[in-house]
Every structure is written in C-alpha cells, then in structure tokens.
Specification:
The protein is mainly alpha-helical. It has one domain (11-294). 61% of the residues lie in helices and 4% in strands. The chain has a two-stranded antiparallel ribbon with strand order 1-4. β2 (44-45) and β3 (50-51) form a beta hairpin. α1 runs antiparallel to α9, α8 (187-210) packs antiparallel against α9 (219-246) and α8 crosses α10. The longest helix has 28 residues, at 219-246. The protein is globular, with a radius of gyration of 19 Å. 36% of the residues are buried.
C-alpha cells in the first residue's frame, strides 16, 4: 500500500480537539477510524512490532535514498541533540534537532505500553483474538502504539535524508519518570494526559511541516522531508480525533486546563522550538485555531467554531 499522504494544504477544515461529541457521532468516528487503521497499516506482527504497510513504505524509502550534506551545521546538531547545546545554530539545524528530540518521551512511553500488550497477551487468552473485544478498543490501541513506534523510525529516516545517521536517544530522567507515572494512572486520567500530549504533538509536527521551506534550495530533500513529517502529522491528527471521541466531558475539560503545562514541558525539553517560532503563545494559538483535517478523511466534519 502506498502511504504517501495528501499535500498538507489539501485539508477539509479544522476541528476543536476539546469538543464533546454526541453518542452517534462518537460511534461513527470510532468505527470509521478502526477501518482506517486496518487499511492504512495492514497486518500486525506484534512479536516483531511490525505493521506490513509501514514496512512497505520504509522499504520504498531505502530503495530510493535521498540525502544532503550541506544544509545543516553538523557540529551544532550533535551538540544540541546529545546535550543542552550552548552554541548558536541556524534555523535549519534547529528544525532537525527539534524533530530528533520531539519524540523521545513518547517513544519511551510507547515501549511501556507495548510491553503491557506483550506481557498480558489479553487478545490470545481463552482462544480470543484481539478482534473479538467488545468495541475494538484493544485493536485500535495496539495499532496506535505501533504507529507511534514507526514515528521514531520515520524520524531516523528524516535524519538520514539530512545527512545524519542517529538513533532516537532515551529521554531525560524526568520524562522517563513522568512516563512511568502516566503508565500506572487509572485509564480515565491516563488518557486525558495522553490527549494533551497528542495535541501538542500534532501542533509541533504541523509547525515542522510549515517550516520545510527552509530546505527549498534542494527540492528533492525538501520533498522527502515533507513526505516523512507528513506521515507523522497525519497519524497524530487522527490520534487526537480518536481520543476526543473516547473521552467524556470532565476529561476534555481537564485536558484543556492541562494543555499549557504540557506545552511548557515540551519547550523546556526542546528549546530549539523557540528558534522556529514555537513558543507557548504560538502553540496555544494554533490549538485555538483548530486542528486541520486531511481532505480524504470524510467521516470527520469541520467544527463551526475552533477551540476557545
């Protein structure tokens, strides 16, 4: 399956990530999203943490490599991605550093969640498959966690196209501790916090997409970077939409209040975002404007009023 996405400019509108859905709309969104996940990702290989269509996409990238050596400050990149980074760096290098660091905490949390699946094997007990759960939530969650795992692999491909060969680094101890606390929270609280993280994530990756013009001097590199970042942006849009459909009014109100704190935490961990214009005010403005809906997602209708 071809995982190339629509140009980000081709959107059908925006949605408010904090709007409470009615029961019929909620049900329609969740059913459609489950079908979308199956078509987009293909077969699950949990033992190897693989999705068949995602593997096809990465294989196509490897068969058609794109790379540059001249767009980035190599010394500044490694200094900032491996530590606090005291030296000044240009916007293009800040873009790459921020991307390389933005998924560290999520990757750590996703590994914990997948271990829960692997250890519990709920979907293999008593001759039940994962498709047999009451509302498909187990299957949806597994697809989402595996998508997040592919985000780390995609970000490594971003670095390769930029002339670097690195692995995503473990997050700071504070983020590891927070991830473990979230992992042990009751589901309602846990998913409320995760919704905030997904909203911040989709906003950050839209910011990265908007700044891909930094690489216009090498059109092939710019096109590859847009394709890769678009994969993550699109997934994150629908992760937010799925969580909005699952959470109730109290959780959505709490998430709205928590969001500024989560934004601040990301900027503290990834200060290079500030060099791209990604300060707290810009993040909150983008959320208030609403999250863009890809044009081919016809089961999501635009909200008449964005989040206030």
């Amino acid at each position: 399956m071809n995982l190339q996405v629509l140009p980000v400019s081709e959107i059908s509108g925006r949605f408010d990530p904090f709007r409470l859905l009615g029961s019929d709309e909620r049900r329609r969104h969740l059913v459609a999203y489950r079908s979308h996940l199956e078509a987009r990702n293909g077969e699950i290989d949990l033992a190897n943490r693989r999705l068949s269509h995602r593997e096809d996409y990465l294989e196509a990238l490897r068969a058609d490599p794109v790379s540059t050596e001249g767009l980035f400050d190599r010394r500044g990149f490694y200094e900032h991605v491996m530590g606090p980074g005291k030296s000044e760096i240009d916007e293009a290098t800040a873009w790459l550093v921020a991307l390389a660091k933005a998924n560290e905490g999520e990757a750590y949390g996703v590994d914990l969640e997948l271990r829960r699946f692997e250890r519990g094997k709920r979907f293999l007990q008593d001759d039940r498959s994962i498709e047999d759960d009451d509302d498909g939530s187990d299957l949806v969650q597994l697809y989402v966690f595996l998508e997040e795992l592919y985000h780390s692999r995609i970000l490594c491909e971003v670095c390769k196209a930029s002339g670097f060969d690195i692995e995503i680094q473990p997050p700071p101890w504070r983020i590891r501790l927070l991830s473990r606390l979230i992992y042990h929270m009751p589901d309602r609280i846990r998913w409320t916090v995760i919704l905030c993280g997904e909203i911040v994530g989709v906003t950050a990756f839209k910011l990265f997409l908007d700044r891909c013009g930094l690489f216009g001097s090498e059109p092939a590199v710019e096109a590859r970077l847009r394709s890769l970042v678009s994969q993550i942006w699109r997934d994150e849009v629908l992760h937010v939409a799925m969580l909005r459909a699952r959470l109730g009014p109290l959780s959505l109100r709490v998430a709205r209040r928590l969001l500024p704190w989560v934004v601040g935490s990301l900027i503290q961990d990834v200060p290079e975002l500030l060099l791209l214009g990604g300060d707290r005010g810009e993040f909150m403005r983008r959320v208030q404007d609403g999250i863009e809906i890809p044009q081919d997602i016809d089961w999501m209708k635009p909200d008449p009023v964005a989040a206030s």
